[in-house]
Structure formats: C-alpha cells, structure tokens
Amino acid sequence: MPREAQVVRATKETDVRLTLRLEGEGHGRISTSVPFFDHMLTLFSRHGFFDLTVAAKGDTDVDFHHVVEDVGICLGEAFRKSLGNLGGIARYAHASIPMIEALAHVTVDVSARPHLVFHCPLKHEKVGAFDLELVEEFLRAFSQASGVCVHVNVPYGSNAHHTVEAIFKGLGRAMAEAVRIDPRVKGVHSSKGVLG
Q1: 124 burial class (0-12, 13-18, 19+ CB within 10 angstroms)?
Q2: Strand order of the sheet with strand 28-31?
Q3: Residue 190: inside a domain, yes or no?
Q4: In a domain, 194, yes or no
Q5: What is the pLDDT of residues 131-141, one digit of tens each?
Q6: For 89, which DSSP code?
Q7: What tens digit of pLDDT does each residue of 158-182 get?
Q8: Cα 76 from chain centroid?
Q9: The domain containing residue 84 runs over which residues?
C-alpha cells in the first residue's frame, strides 16, 4: 500500500492543506503565496521523488514567518503519519549536494527524537523578500513535527539562492533514502526494539 498522508492546519494566522505520497514520482504542486519558498519545496519534492501538494495562505502582509513555519509543521506531520510505527525503514541517511559554488551536507535520523543542528553562514541575508532565517525556522518546525533529527552543515557558499537550494535538495534526497523500506530491517531499526 502507498504510504501517504493528508494534513490540514487552520489557525488565525494561516490555512495550510498538504498531501504527501512517499512512493511518488517527484510531482510538486506548491502554492504558498511565497514564491521563493514554493521553488524550494518544489525542489524538495522533485529530488526526493515525493508527490507533494501544498496550498497555503496566511498573513504574508505581516511577513512570511507564519506560513513558512506552519508548512514545516504540516510537512513534518505528514511524514510522521505516513511512516506509522517507523517499521522497516532504513532510518539514517546523508546527502551532500553541490549547487555551483555552494555545498550543503544534510544528515537525518528518522528516530522519533526530533532535533535540529543548523550551521549555515547565510542566516541573516535575503533572497528577494525572503528572509533566510526562515530556512532554519522551517527546518525546526519540520523536525519537531516529524520526529526527525536533522543536521544541516554548509561549509561554504557565497550565493544565498544556491546555498538554500542545496539545502532543500539535500533534505529531499536524505529523507527519500531514510524512509525507504529496507528488506533487511525487521520491525524498527534499533537495538532497543523501539524508536523514540
């Protein structure tokens, strides 16, 4: 059976509707009213081979923070729901993605123990109207909602767009590898017999 989930989150600040299919073909239909973020989520979907639909709106007249964070929450919840008890998955994965002059290392552990480590030299810059500090906020929300431990390390990169693109592509590739079914894994991939 396909592993998939649908998440709806409606608050006074945002309205997010998201569907995720893990065994997809990389089809992304993304509309968040934040064009640069749409582009990054499309890259995540394409390079992770996830079918992802996101329709989000919110108080972008204030700033983009609430929409970006809430989409992160919804995407994390969709992964958590679609993975069930985490049985049979590879669990760990790493992707190193170059994008012209930038390089991003993304490592994940789908363990039901959320944590984010984010080392990136471009935190306080902008791409157009998009504040790059929101990348870290998105990843933190995703990690907390999904239960995935995420480490992002960017050793170098002078172009902000390229750097963030490498991060989102890396997250897609790493998550795709971590959630794949490994026939060698019986139950959950843990010496304790449980994850979390």
Answers
A1: exposed
A2: 4-10, 14-21, 51-58, 28-31
A3: no
A4: no
A5: 999 999 999 99
A6: B
A7: 999 999 999 999 999 999 999 999 8
A8: 7
A9: 4-178
